[in-house]
Inverse folding.
């Protein structure tokens, strides 16, 4: 195999659009740092580092989606469920920056596009979905798994739609049928989202079993505190 | 306060071990076909066996050489020909770098709460 590119490469979307999204990404990350610091204590800080490292690792594991098409975890849903949307977006961004600067994966000029799609859209859509679902579902393992699964699909399709929008605004090749590209992009990413959903649900359940206090989604504001029954 | 069954240090160490096995070993069993974005970008073009575009119109047509490249480009290691070792080792390095940068940055900006009780 010649190149291993998982993210938007250099030269796909024009410099103007890339620059606008770099500014959007930077502003979003600045808000995440300011807002996320409130959550970031001695326990969440190492957990967030682990979440970033884990997402890096699992992104390498391309799975079968269709003949000749693979998919891999993007990680936004996993990050949002484990460490919350603010710190989660920063975790995914760190992965994307390391990949762009060290592994030549994703153009440096496209970093704002990739961060917007996978880190910002991915985590915040997830957070919206999981806040809604956890409000109506009982706080049981099956419900947490179902929430993770649905949130992951939504986050992946959301990220893919972000790319379609960016390409519509600044795609460098003129003759691309945007409708067809959008259909393909979203169709393939529904399938990838199923894989992402399974991985996200399994991982969140595993963490919830061992250390429920390390699952941010379980102590979100809309929820009563859980796992206190182990207190003598 | 409830006392967790697994200490935080042990949890983080265990999680890193899992990440290391995934990136260092399991990564070699990944499906090597282009991912969703890549395959949609290639739609409409034809490719030769070196993966160079030979014709057609597709998004990937304007893709340029990566700006940085570097010794770990494409999850390999320059100078290591064995693909299994190159992929595994670059994955391990990636996990280490990501945890060092992520964990370090989060540790530095964390807020310090006075210890309760």
């Amino acid at each position: 195999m010649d190149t291993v590119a998982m993210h938007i490469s250099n030269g796909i979307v024009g410099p103007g659009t890339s620059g606008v999204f770099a500014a959007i990404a930077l502003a979003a990350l600045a808000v995440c740092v300011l807002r996320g610091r409130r959550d970031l204590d001695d326990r969440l800080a190492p957990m967030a580092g682990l979440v970033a490292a884990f997402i890096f690792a699992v992104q390498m594991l391309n799975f079968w989606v269709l003949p000749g098409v693979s998919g891999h975890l993007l990680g936004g849903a996993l990050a949002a469920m484990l460490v919350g949307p603010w710190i989660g977006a920063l975790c995914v961004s760190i992965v994307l920056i390391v990949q762009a600067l060290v592994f030549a994966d994703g153009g440096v000029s496209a970093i704002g596009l990739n961060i917007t799609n996978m880190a910002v859209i991915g985590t915040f859509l997830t957070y919206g979905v999981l806040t809604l679902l956890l409000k109506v579902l009982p706080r049981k393992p099956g419900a947490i798994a179902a929430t993770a699964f649905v949130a992951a699909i939504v986050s992946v399709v959301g990220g893919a739609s972000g790319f379609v929008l960016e390409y519509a605004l600044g795609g460098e090749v003129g003759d691309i049928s945007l409708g067809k590209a959008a259909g393909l992009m979203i169709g393939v990413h529904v399938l990838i989202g199923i894989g992402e959903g399974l991985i996200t649900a399994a991982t969140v359940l595993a963490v919830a079993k061992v250390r429920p206090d390390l699952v941010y989604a379980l102590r979100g504001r809309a929820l009563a505190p859980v796992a206190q029954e182990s207190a003598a | 306060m409830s006392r967790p069954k697994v200490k935080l240090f042990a949890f983080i160490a265990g999680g890193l071990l899992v990440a290391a096995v995934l990136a260092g070993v399991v990564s070699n069993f990944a499906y090597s076909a282009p991912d969703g974005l890549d395959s949609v970008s290639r739609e409409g073009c034809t490719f030769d066996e070196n993966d160079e575009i030979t014709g057609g119109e597709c998004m990937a047509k304007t893709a340029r050489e990566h700006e940085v490249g570097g010794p770990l480009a494409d999850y390999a290691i320059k100078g290591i020909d064995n693909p299994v070792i190159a992929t595994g080792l670059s994955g391990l390095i990636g996990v280490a770098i990501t945890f060092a940068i992520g964990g370090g940055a989060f540790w530095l900006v964390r807020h310090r709460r006075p210890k309760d009780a």
